Amino acid sequence: MSVNWFPGHMAKALREMKTILGQVDLIIETCDARIPRSSRNPELKRLAPQKPLILVLNKADLSDPAVTKAWLEYYKEKHVHAIACDSIRRTGLNQLNQLALSLTREKIDQAAARGRRFRPIRLLVAGIPNTGKSTLINAFSKRKAAKTADKPGLTRQLSWTRTGGQFELLDSPGVLWPKIESDVDQWHLATTGAIRDDLLATEEIAFSLWKQLLEQYPDATLARYQIDTIDEDPIISFEQAARNRGCLKAGGTVDLNRFSSVLIDEFRGGQIGRISLESPVLQIKSEKNR
Ligand SMILES: Nc1nc2c(ncn2[C@@H]2O[C@H](COP(=O)(O)OP(=O)(O)OP(=O)(O)O)[C@@H](O)[C@H]2O)c(=O)[nH]1
Ligand SMILES: [Mg+2]
Which residues does residue 125 pair with via DSSP β-bridges, in sequence order? Predict the structure, then answer.
């Protein structure tokens, strides 16, 4: 099946980011703390390998705190500057502010020594769709300058926001890459809402999420969907959960499509619990096998 998740506006945004990079002091890359592996765009790394970069594991209020901590340790070992944030409640933003200052100080001091007037530090906020770039900019600037929404592909243009303080922030449209190779990556991106809901079959996304929940978070999942025991075949408990939720068609047959939407919504809203779908342990294993 050929799925087009790299529409024209993303290619255009990448081109525009390339041309404006000369004006940017530092890149803040947002990814989703629940899926730090599949929510990083390899094209962004290629865009400016020499620029200082801070990786924000955003939506950390929804991810498993122990797994997020393990990701931060993983990135520290890899010498990647990473910070966990909740852009809605502004957690992690002071740390982000301090790190952005310390990574750009030398450049700003050099400019001052050459007699240049003070100018704000320019940050490009980039990442895949729906990872909270615009929300982070609003939180950082304490303004509601950027529009945000619970769906991917809202921001369509590059636009600068002054913070009133030391920074100028460049919001950018969420960009994916032309070919997402792995099925698991596709499912994870769809589950967290990074690719449009109509691009993949809802039931397929939900069932892959269900299997992962049973494996990694069985207690929280069984409790939420009132299931006593797990059958070896996960489709049995999936159907049971749908029934328990009252997702039935006329005549009493189970409505898996409706339950699939319920499950995905509840996952996205954090109602099943704080859940991470990707862990650095598996990441290290796959790196070793390369
Ligand atoms: N729980 C939680 N939700 C967040 C956080 N940051 C953003 N959101 C929500 O995620 C959704 C997407 O946020 P946006 O800021 O529009 O995301 P974006 O990356 O700018 O999206 P595009 O412009 O489409 O690329 C909105 O519903 C936000 O309220 C966070 O840290 N925690
Ligand atoms: Mg946006």
Answer: 28, 171
Dist. CA 235 → ligand 1 center (Å): 32
16 against 287, higher pLDDT: 16
Distance CA 15, CA 134 (A): 20
The per-residue pLDDT for range 177-210, each reduced to its tens digit, is 988 889 999 999 999 999 998 888 999 999 999 9
Mean pLDDT, range 133-155, rounded to an integer: 90
Q: Are 172 and 126 in contact (CB under 8 A)?
A: yes
Closest CA to 92 of 154, 25, 152, 33: 33
Domains of the chain, earliest start first? 8-171 (3.40.50.300), 201-288 (1.10.1580.10)
Q: Which atom of ligand 1 is nearest the CA belonging to 154? A: 24
Closest ligand by atom to 126 CA: 1
Q: Which residues contact 114 (CB under 8 A, 6 or more apart)?
A: none
pLDDT of residue 230: 84
Backbone angles phi, psi at 221, to 5 degrees: -70, -45
How far is residue 55's CA from residue 38's CA, in Å, rounded to a whole number? 14
Mean pLDDT over the full length of the chain: 93
Which residues are within 5 Å of ligand 2 (an ion), measured at CB? 133-134, 154-155
